Known about the structure:
Elements: E1 5-14, E2 21-28, H1 33-42, E3 45-54, E4 66-70, E5 75-77, H2 78-83, H3 85-88, E6 99-104, H4 147-151
Antiparallel strand pairs: 1-2, 1-3, 4-5, 4-6
Amino acid sequence: MRPPNITWVFGVNSNIGLCDREEHVYAPLDADARELAQSLYEAGYIKVEYIRKEWERWAWPGGYPLYYVCTDGGVLCSKCVNDNIKMTSDPEAERDWRVVGVDINYENNELFCDHCGERCESAYCEPDDADAPASTGHDTGEDSGPAEDLCGY
Length: 153
C-alpha cells in the first residue's frame, strides 16, 4: 500500500490559442493549490483556475482498479472516496473517512466498500469468473473443446 496522492484539476488556457481545457496535476493531498497554479503559469498557461480535487480511480500505468484505506482500517471504493471528497480529503476528518493509503485490487473479489457495501472492482478476478465454463460461448452451448482441438494438434 502506498500513501495516497490526489489529482488537482485546473481549468487552463494557453497563450498559443488552445481553447479552455482541464489540466490534471498529480500531487500530495496537502499540496498548496496556489503553488500548483503558479507552476502551471510558469509552464506557459495564461489562465489558470482551480476546479476540484479528485482521487484516482485507476492506477497508471496499467489501469488497475484502486481502493482506499482509512485510518480505522476501513476500505472505500473509488466511487465513494470521490463522492465524499470533502471528508476524504480533509486531514482532520473522522477516522472512518481519513484516507491514509491506496492500493490496487488485483484479485480480491471479496473486497467490499465499507460505505456503500458494493464489491470493489478487481483487475483479474470477477465474481462470476469461477463459475464460467471453459468455453467460447460461456454456457451458451458453443463449447470449443480443448485448446488442442482448436489448434489442430
